[in-house]
């Protein structure tokens, strides 16, 4: 079949244009889908989560711009809103503190950290300035015993913060935390909040109350039920409070109080072994796609459910059964799954839910600050990019190996009493 020269030339030209267009689109698409390293992804998600909090606090505009959202099951809306500011401060800082403490990294990360350091120091000063809009009073209600302990934990994890506060603000911070002694802790994991505040005082050279620490240590020992898990009070509940609070707090308190007295050496050795056992259980709870059982109260804490596993990785005390890279990959999967819903944020602020906005999952004590405890999954950012946690190649975690049909060691309970 003969094709006119003009028509043939036009056809060739059109095909060439299409090829150029497709190539340009492919090039453009490749730029858009550039693969981030795990560390870059974690930093990106951390920045997205905490920036609205710390930027506004540094500008003395947190109370103006932070939504006054509470759970639909709230018990006392007005009071819960009043305490949400110390709550969000403690929860955000406790999670990013190790990264703030870290030095070095690539230029982009160093610049980001320097910016956050400036915001945090200025924000802390605003929170302690009675003339500032964002002044935070620590004696409004019992919930602030909880929230002060997260602020205390942040300073413990990042002494840089303490060292870069001037003496006046150090004293104001100390007095704010001491103020919460007036609140009687609930007979539960709350005993650890009191003990953590005392550990903070002990670490930074203030007079601390050994009785509050002893009471928490002895009572938690009474509540140990076996296989690395504790009751949260007089009854056992299958939730994530062993990770939200109990194990990370026991480990943090032990590290400080253990340097002050040898009275708890035997107990602290038990705590260490239980820390390891519960880390093994936590890693096995992470499904092949980063989901995990949505059970128990405070499930809206999202990735905070793996506070303990992240803390063990940060402190480089994971049990031998868990490689650094499998834990990194498992936690990355959790971060992706819990933050991927388009309704995770509303106007830049975390919503109440586990997978996006799910109001009915909230508890009676949840306010806008509550979900930010999930920043504690970012603790390993306190390890440098050269650390094996980040540098080792990706690896499957336990559930991925098992559900891919690979042969795999079975699991056994451990009493550890």
UniProtKB/TrEMBL annotation:
Presence of the UniProt keyword RNA-binding in the record: no
Domain of life: Bacteria
Pfam families: DUF2264
InterPro entries: DUF2264_N, UCP014753
Keywords: Signal
Span of domain DUF2264: 38-397
Signal peptide per UniProt: 1-24
Protein's UniProt keywords contain Signal: yes
UniProt xrefs under PANTHER family: DUF2264 DOMAIN-CONTAINING PROTEIN, LINALOOL DEHYDRATASE_ISOMERASE DOMAIN-CONTAINING PROTEIN
Name the record gives this protein: DUF2264 domain-containing protein
């Amino acid at each position: 079949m003969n094709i006119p020269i003009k028509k043939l030339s036009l056809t060739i030209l059109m095909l060439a244009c299409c090829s150029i267009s497709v190539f340009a689109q492919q090039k453009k698409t490749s730029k858009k889908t550039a693969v981030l390293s795990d560390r870059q992804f974690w930093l990106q998600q951390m920045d997205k989560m905490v920036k609205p909090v710390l930027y506004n606090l540094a500008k003395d505009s947190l109370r103006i711009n932070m939504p006054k959202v509470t759970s639909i099951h709230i018990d006392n809306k007005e009071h819960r809103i009043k305490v949400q500011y110390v709550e969000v401060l403690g929860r955000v800082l406790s999670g990013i503190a190790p990264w703030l403490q870290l030095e070095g990294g690539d230029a982009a990360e160093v610049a980001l950290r320097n910016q956050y350091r400036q915001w945090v120091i200025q924000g802390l000063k605003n929170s302690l300035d009675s003339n500032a809009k964002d002044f935070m009073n620590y004696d409004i209600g019992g919930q602030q015993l909880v929230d002060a302990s997260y602020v205390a934990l942040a300073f413990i994890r990042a002494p840089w913060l303490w060292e870069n506060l001037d003496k006046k603000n150090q004293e104001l911070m100390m007095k704010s935390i001491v103020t919460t002694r007036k609140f009687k802790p609930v007979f539960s994991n709350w005993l650890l909040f009191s003990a953590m505040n005392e550990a903070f005082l002990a670490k930074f050279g203030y007079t601390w109350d050994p009785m509050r620490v002893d009471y928490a240590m002895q009572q938690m020992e009474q509540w140990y039920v076996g296989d690395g898990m504790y009751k949260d009070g007089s009854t056992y509940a299958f939730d994530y409070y062993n990770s939200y609070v109990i194990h990370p707090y026991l480990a943090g308190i032990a590290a400080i109080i253990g340097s002050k007295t040898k009275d708890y050496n035997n107990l602290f050795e038990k705590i260490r072994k239980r820390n390891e056992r519960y880390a093994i259980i936590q890693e096995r709870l992470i499904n092949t796609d980063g989901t995990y059982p949505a059970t128990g109260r405070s499930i809206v804490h999202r990735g905070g459910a793996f506070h303990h596993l992240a803390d063990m990785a940060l402190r480089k005390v994971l049990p031998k059964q868990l490689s650094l890279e499998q834990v990194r990959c498992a936690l990355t999967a959790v971060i992706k799954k819990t933050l991927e819903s388009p309704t995770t944020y509303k106007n830049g602020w975390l919503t109440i839910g586990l997978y996006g906005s799910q109001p009915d999952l909230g508890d009676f004590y949840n306010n806008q600050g509550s979900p930010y405890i999930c920043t504690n999954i970012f603790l390993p950012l306190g390890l440098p990019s050269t650390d094996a946690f980040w540098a080792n190649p990706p690896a499957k975690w336990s559930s991925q190996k098992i559900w891919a049909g690979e042969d795999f060691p079975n699991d056994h309970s451990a009493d550890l009493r």
